[in-house]
Amino acid sequence: MEAEVSAISRLRIGVDGEGVTTLVAFMLCPLSCEYCLNPQTLSIKRPHKIYTPESLYEELKKDELYFLATGGGVTFGGGEPLLRHGFIREFRKVCGNDWKINLETSLNVPRECLEDVIPVTDSYLIDVKDMDPEIYSRYTGMDNSRVVENLKIISEKGLEARCVIRIPEIPGFNTPDDVRRSEEAVRGLGFMNIDKFTYDVDYGKRKRDLQGA
């Protein structure tokens, strides 16, 4: 089993999981966000490396001391990591249970992708964009019904405390009132850990222009 990886970012603290983490960014994403922060992941025609679960473990185990000392581990992002759900399950078998596995995800995938990794995942960083279907579609080019369905699955399994829900205010797409309504919607599903922030549109544009997206 192999997966395309755009980048590996080591020794991260407090940004994508507990303790010291290493971010592994997979290629490919189902969304086409207007101001994508990782446009380099959108096509496998762009530069990337190929890993198996075993070779990725060999690459990451140099940081095991930091993971064990701080309760940290690996954060799979992208792109959309849930498109690589089988790889993530296999990686857990290779790395064992001492490392945390975190997912940075949009949840816009078939429910089977999420359900496959729930047994091996410690925490979720979920970027819902906006819960309003029209706003979501306008910004991402996709429907958000799978996002809502997968949030319900997580809630029904009682895993809300393992999640941080990210709700950005995106100038030109949603308003503070829209963000408030999205927050109310996710709280209604039982999620209490909410990260609200204002998206840096200029930074997103620069990333897009630099990558030629």
**CATH third-level topology:** TIM Barrel
The computed structural class is alpha/beta
Note the run of SSEs as H and E.
EEEHHEHEHEHHEHEH
* Beta-strand content estimate: 15-25%
CATH superfamily descriptor: Aldolase class I
Q: What coarse outline follows from CA principal-axis ratios? A: globular
SS elements, strand count = 8
Strand order of the largest sheet: 3-1-2-4-5-6-7-8
Q: What's the CATH class, please?
A: Alpha Beta
Number of helices: 8
Distance between the termini: 29 Å
**Global mean pLDDT:** 94
Would you identify the CATH architecture? Answer: Alpha-Beta Barrel
Residues in helices, as a percent range: 25-40%
Radius of gyration: 17 Å
- Main sheet specs: 8 strands, mixed
Could you characterize the architecture of this molecule?
With 213 residues, this protein is of the alpha/beta class. The protein has 8 helices and 8 strands; from the N terminus they run βββααβαβαβααβαβα. α7 (176-188) links the parallel β7 (163-169) and β8.
Keywords:
alpha/beta; 8 helices; single chain; 213 residues; globular; 23% strand; 8-stranded mixed β-sheet; TIM Barrel
Topology of helices and strands:
Elements: E1 3-13, E2 20-26, E3 49-51, H1 53-60, H2 64-70, E4 73-77, H3 85-95, E5 100-105, H4 111-117, E6 123-127, H5 133-140, H6 145-156, E7 163-169, H7 176-188, E8 194-198, H8 201-211
Parallel strand pairs: 2-4, 4-5, 5-6, 6-7, 7-8
Antiparallel strand pairs: 1-2, 1-3
